[in-house]
Amino acid sequence: MIQEWTRGQWALRATVVLGPVLALLAAAPAGAAPWGWLVVLVAVLAAFHARWPESAGGIAAPGVVVLFWGAALGDRLTAWALPAAAALLAAHVAALLAAYGPDGLGVDVPTLWLWLRRAGAAFLLAPAVLLPGLILRDRAETPGVWVVGLAVALVATVVATAALGRGAGD
Amino acid sequence: MTTWRATAAMTRATALGALGVAAAVLFGAPVVVVLTAPLLLLAAMGLLHRPTTSPVVETEVDHVVLHEGQGTRVRLVVDDLSDVEHVTRLSSPVRHVALHPAAGRMGCLLEPDGEPPVVEASPRRWGRRLLGEENVAMTSRWAGYRWGPVSMVGSQLQVLPVRAPFDSRAEAPQPLGVVGAHRSQRPGDGTEFASIRPFHPGDRLRRIHWRVSLRTDALHVVSTRGEEDTAVLVVVDALADHGRSGGVDGASSSLDVAVRAAAAIAEHHVRRGDRVSLRVVGTGGETVRYGTGARHLRLIQSRLATMQVGTPRDLRGDQVQLGVTAGTVVIVLSPMLSDVVGTMTASLVKRGLPVLVVDTLPTDVVPAVVEGTDPRIADLAWRMRRIERREGLARLATIGCPVVAWRGPGTLDEVLHRLARRAQLPRVRVR
Q1: Which of A56, A122, A130 sits opposite B11 (nearest CB)?
Q2: Which residue, B109, B32, B416, is CA-closest to A146?
């Protein structure tokens, strides 16, 4: 019940709502302003996620944002992707913290700090991915680089899954 | 069997990461990977810390026997915590049990020493208290997997009545025992001065009063009264509970007053070396025989805590067996709203026993009525009942049974003094 939310829970839920909306709006300075109805749609989906942070529907709002960025910006690389990544990450971690228990559960401060540190460390991956892209942007594209990249990612996923699955079964 | 399952956060991070890669390939947009790379990393870390254990969880209470207002810790015992990072515990609230945290909900990281978080429970009213059902969930490192939530049945506590402040300097009216702290009516080897009388063979030499002996030219000795213990029977009226109980910190119902007063009186007399017995007039008919000592006191408290409230079928006041012997002080703790207890008390008084009634009816009691009852009729009925009660108490006073309201220390002093004085007067027994 919303009435049971503590101030900490309200802050978490607000972050869950604002994160995807801000990530969507961050595309505007990059030259791809989202339509108004899309912003409203994302806000509604994010609100749904904030109310039920453990639902599978939580993927909808950030999913729409990711698809919009991909469709609207194409092969353009922009530093505005960093605040967008931070906003998506913040929303994800806020939902994760909110999903630790029912509505009335307060926010445990040590847990919050632990996840802030983890999120900060994970966010470093965003500039680490962006910087090589910006550096290599003006170079001629090697034929089939995307296919090779996808194949490497798939192989890595299969290997990791097999390794982890064997470890879990021991 | 409960197993570890992927959390919503793990599923979301993995799906968004996959969606990002797919969108990057589909739209030829590397910027999407920037957005989803941190989420992919979190998902990978969750996967890397995939749990391999199957924890067995149970709850354990530090103390199952407590006094009202005392607290205990409800621990979570997990056989293997190696994969656990965060524990969530949700305890259902139960009447008359205070929890800390207040709502019984807590979610936190494992303690530095690897101990799961502890819930503190404090029963606020005597009796058997079953702690509420508890739901436990545990999350693995990086919140990748969750175990539970699992429902666990709460433990049962036996809550002894609180030690109400009580003290009495009054002596028992008719001590009739062996060795104790009450001044006997018979001469004996005590410390209480009785008289100076002529020496008889067998008197101890150290008892000779030399000043009087020299003055009278005949040996005189100081005689003392003997000191004996007494038997105390505490009768608790558990036919019904009147009033609202707010626990040890709040308002007291009639049974709260009776039980706490009974515990205090029993403790006082046990500490003085008297033989104390308990009889509960109620559905359970709990009885504790005469005895002394700390273990006996604990038995009395335990019976008080576990007594059953209610009116047995076909209960008649003249049929209640109390097992009272001569010299026993009978203390009846009752709201005196039942004819059964009134009749029982009157028959004890007529047997010549020192009986006193402690009125346990709260002054501001409101009768419990069936929903839908006309409040005017309920009020009228309650007023009539109170008038009957007043008449019953007056009749008891007429036949020589004092009635006092419980007010803690000194409650019984005045009436016990009066009963002791009355016991010294010559009596004519009616046959």
Answers
A1: A56
A2: B32
pTM, to two decimals: 0.73
Closest Cα in chain A, distance from residue B79 (Å): 18
What are the pLDDT digits (tens) for B194-208? Answer: 778 888 888 888 888
Average pLDDT of B61-75? 89
A101 with B90: Cβ contact below 8 A: yes
Does B5 touch chain A if contact means CB atoms closer than 8 Å?
no
- The residues in B 134-153 lying below 8 A from A, measured between CB atoms, are 137, 139, 142-143
What is the rounded distance in angstroms from the CA atom of residue A98 to the CA atom of residue A4?
Answer: 13
**Span A104-150, pLDDT tens digits:** 788 889 999 999 999 988 888 888 888 877 777 766 566 566 566 66
Q: With contacts defined as CB-CB under 8 Å, which chain B residues touch A126?
A: 34-35, 37-38
Complex-level ipTM: 0.85
Q: Considering CB atoms only, which of B20, B27, B90 is closest to A71?
A: B27
Query: Do B247 and B96 meet the contact criterion of CB atoms below 8 Å apart?
Result: yes
Per-residue confidence (pLDDT) for residue B415, from 0 to 100: 65
What domains are there in chain B, each with its CATH number? 4-48 (no CATH), 57-160 (2.60.40.680), 182-228 (no CATH), 231-424 (3.40.50)
**A 39-98: CB under 8 A from B:** 53-56, 58-59, 62-63, 65-67, 69-71, 73-78, 81-82, 84-85, 88-89, 92, 95-96
For residues B212 and B382, give the distance between their C-alpha atoms in angstroms, rounded to a whole number: 67
Interatomic CA distance for residues B26 and A32, integer angstroms:
18
Residue spans per domain, chain A = 2-139, 142-170
Q: Calculate the CA B340 to chain-centre distance.
A: 25
